[in-house]
């Protein structure tokens, strides 16, 4: 007999031989056909969210806890057992404040079970709740370039179109950032007022987005009259409830300019990675947050003078007291692997305080009582994000709070990796502290920088392809498709004029348009220009149908906010086009007028229809023209491929894409 004891008291955790996770003494002797460990959680401790391909069972030995599995929660106590199928993220929290929680974790591998669960997870479940898509609002210190479009704006627009095509309710909330020091610095350099520059650039931003076929449901301008009151309401609520703190600390200061050096007015190197790409309170390169005073070799970005330290009283939002809530939220939120690794890096250290007020000329006024330094300050732009969201939601619904409680909307954020801290930590912290009417964002869609000829797009250095000059009605679709095909969805990727030209002429015109021309020609020649009804099948037809299904499944799944990856959709379309080329060689041998010939032609039309369905969120004009050629007003996004109606007249457009691949690169 072998007995393995279980820690039951706090004193057991202090024993020299205590181990948090260990195989019981009988495990090796039993030679069981599964793995097993005894795990003990301290009071309040939670396991790191994880998933795996194994099947797992937890057997509760002592204590009580809360298990989360794929977003579901359940309280369990000693004697309970929990089966955890593969792939779904799960955690266990000890609910006790004074008693350990101990359990057996048993796991084993079953590839058939893994395959079955994987298949189940490919089925899309529509929730019926409206989806609010919130890309990072652009800063109106300049107009947009292709680097901007390739990230949050194209992604949010494509996601909105896909959700609507799938029958969901979705709205894209957009605007420009209200008050950022980058706008102040740019206005100072141009010799114009803050609001003149912000409004002028906002006009240019909306023109560029329209030229690129980006649609929105509401747009909040810098001059939006409801905005200051909303921002002030958020600030006063958190201040009056003691969520904010007022603190005096040494702050970078430029003596020649007589200015505290914050945001765009300070230069220095990141204390984490040494990069000089610092802005605000997070590094553009590593994205890790830092305190203003921790910048290495800080200096004035205006005159270059080395900074000195002067005391300054400001408001802050401490994030460390919100750690548990932020941890629970982030570990249950959909995001790609790189962002999740970043989140865990931030959570591994004490969370920084979020500045709420700064000395600045422009912005929402905040009075700091008993201040050292200026008492009249302005709201920090990152703290404003919640108010911008609520004003946009007000503009969409006429009343954000009643709408939120009635509809319980889902929210999805789209942002660049350099803004990961502000979107993943700061925004949910402020929103969650202000109201419980809105659920925190359920998915975080993050992209890295898009490069131009191997270097970062830069408004300041004029190294850019400006959106208003590059995009237009003739080429918006193909530009969007190329940006999606080369999307910096996880890592940096490069835009080159040569790559764009080769993609358009070789892939879009040479193969995609070529497929339409070939299929349309065969339908005209063999079936009088009308869609046939399928007849008999052979092995090649079955294989091709399966390949069409793969594209339909990819499009349905990879536009979902929780696993958004349009680059994968473009790749899947290109794959099906090549498979259709191969299938055409088979269909050419079918006896004219036979059932097999009809099936081959009907499958080719199904493939074209599925292609149109897949590309419409990215190329709405091209997708719409193909749908019209198939006799449909629009094609719903569906994982099940559909036939083209037999008898429908078929005549595909021959000019789906523009042969002119010139990209204007102007200086502004």
UniProtKB/TrEMBL annotation:
Keyword annotations from UniProtKB, A to Z: Aminoacyl-tRNA synthetase, ATP-binding, Ligase, Nucleotide-binding, Protein biosynthesis
Pfam families for the chain: Cupin_2 (PF07883), tRNA-synt_1g (PF09334)
Catalysed reaction, written as an equation: tRNA(Met) + L-methionine + ATP = L-methionyl-tRNA(Met) + AMP + diphosphate
PROSITE patterns for this protein: AA_TRNA_LIGASE_I (PS00178)
Segments forming domain Cupin type-2: 38-105
An individual GO BP term: methionyl-tRNA aminoacylation
Any one cellular-component term (Gene Ontology): cytosol
Domain Methionyl/Leucyl tRNA synthetase: 137-516
InterPro entries: aa-tRNA-synth_I_CS, Cupin_2, Met-tRNA_ligase_1, Methionyl/Leucyl_tRNA_Synth, MetRS_Zn, RmlC-like_jellyroll, RmlC_Cupin_sf, Rossmann-like_a/b/a_fold
GO MF: ATP binding; methionine-tRNA ligase activity
Family classification: Belongs to the class-I aminoacyl-tRNA synthetase family.
Protein name as it appears in the record: Methionine-tRNA ligase
Lineage, opening ranks: Bacteria, Bacillati, Actinomycetota, Actinomycetes, Mycobacteriales
Gene assigned in the entry: focJ
């Amino acid at each position: 007999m072998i007995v393995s004891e279980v820690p039951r008291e706090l004193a057991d955790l202090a024993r020299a031989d205590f181990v948090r996770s260990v195989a019981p003494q009988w495990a090796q002797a039993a030679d069981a056909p599964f793995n097993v460990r005894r795990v003990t959680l301290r009071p309040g401790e939670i396991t790191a969210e994880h998933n795996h391909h194994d099947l797992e069972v937890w057997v509760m030995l002592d204590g009580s806890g809360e298990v989360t599995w794929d977003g579901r929660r359940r309280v369990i106590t000693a004697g309970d057992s929990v089966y955890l199928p593969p792939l779904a993220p799960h955690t266990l929290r000890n609910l006790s404040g004074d008693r350990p929680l101990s359990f057996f974790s048993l796991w084993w591998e079953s590839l058939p079970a893994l395959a079955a669960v994987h298949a189940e997870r490919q089925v899309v479940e529509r929730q019926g709740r409206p989806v609010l898509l919130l890309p990072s609002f652009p800063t109106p210190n300049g107009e947009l370039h292709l680097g901007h479009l390739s990230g949050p704006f194209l992604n949010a627009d494509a996601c909105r179109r896909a959700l609507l095509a799938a029958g969901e309710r979705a709205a894209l909330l957009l605007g420009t950032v209200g008050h950022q020091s980058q706008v102040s610095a740019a206005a100072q350099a141009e010799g114009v007022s803050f609001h003149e520059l912000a409004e002028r650039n906002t006009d240019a931003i909306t023109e560029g987005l329209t030229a690129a076929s980006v649609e929105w449901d509401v747009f909040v301008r810098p001059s939006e009259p409801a905005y200051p009151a909303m921002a002030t309401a958020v600030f006063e609520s958190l201040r009056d409830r003691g969520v904010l703190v007022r603190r005096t600390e040494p702050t970078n200061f430029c003596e020649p300019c007589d200015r505290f050096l914050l945001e765009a007015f300070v230069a220095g190197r990141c204390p984490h990675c040494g990069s000089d790409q610092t802005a605000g309170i997070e590094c553009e390169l590593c994205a890790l947050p830092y305190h203003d005073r921790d910048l290495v070799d800080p200096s004035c970005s205006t005159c270059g003078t080395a900074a000195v330290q002067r005391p300054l009283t400001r408001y802050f939002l401490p994030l460390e007291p919100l750690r548990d809530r932020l941890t629970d939220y982030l570990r249950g939120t959909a995001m790609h692997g790189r962002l999740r690794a970043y989140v865990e890096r931030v959570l591994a250290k004490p969370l920084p305080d979020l500045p709420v007020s700064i000395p600045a000329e422009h912005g929402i006024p905040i009075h700091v009582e008993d201040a050292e330094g200026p008492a009249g300050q302005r709201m920090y732009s990152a703290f404003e994000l919640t108010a911008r969201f609520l004003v946009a939601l007000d503009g969409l619904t006429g009343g954000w709070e009643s709408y939120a409680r009635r509809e319980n909307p889902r929210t999805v954020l789209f942002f660049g990796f350099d803004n990961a801290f502000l979107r993943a930590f700061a925004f949910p912290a402020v929103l969650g502290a202000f109201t419980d009417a809105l659920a925190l964002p359920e998915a975080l869609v993050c992209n890295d920088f898009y490069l131009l000829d191997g270097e970062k797009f830069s408004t300041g250095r004029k190294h850019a392809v400006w959106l208003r000059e590059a995009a237009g009605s003739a080429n918006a679709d193909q530009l969007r498709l190329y940006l999606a095909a080369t999307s910096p969805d996880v890592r940096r990727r490069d835009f080159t004029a040569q790559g764009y030209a080769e993609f358009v002429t070789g892939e879009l015109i040479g193969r995609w348009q070529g497929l339409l021309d070939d299929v349309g020609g065969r339908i005209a020649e063999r079936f009088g220009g009308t869609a046939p009804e399928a007849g008999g099948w052979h092995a090649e037809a079955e294989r091709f149908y399966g390949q069409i299904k793969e594209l339909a499944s990819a499009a349905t799944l990879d536009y979902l906010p929780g696993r958004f990856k349009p680059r994968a959709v473009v790749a899947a379309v290109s794959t099906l086009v090549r498979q259709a080329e191969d299938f055409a060689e088979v269909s050419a041998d079918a006896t004219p007028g036979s059932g097999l010939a009809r099936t081959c032609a009907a499958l080719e039309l199904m493939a074209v229809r599925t292609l149109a369905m897949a590309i419409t969120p990215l190329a709405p004009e091209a997708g719409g023209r193909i749908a019209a050629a198939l006799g449909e007003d629009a094609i719903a996004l569906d994982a099940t491929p559909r036939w083209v109606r037999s008898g429908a007249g078929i005549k595909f457009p021959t000019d789906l894409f523009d042969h002119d691949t010139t990209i204007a690169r102007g200086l502004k």
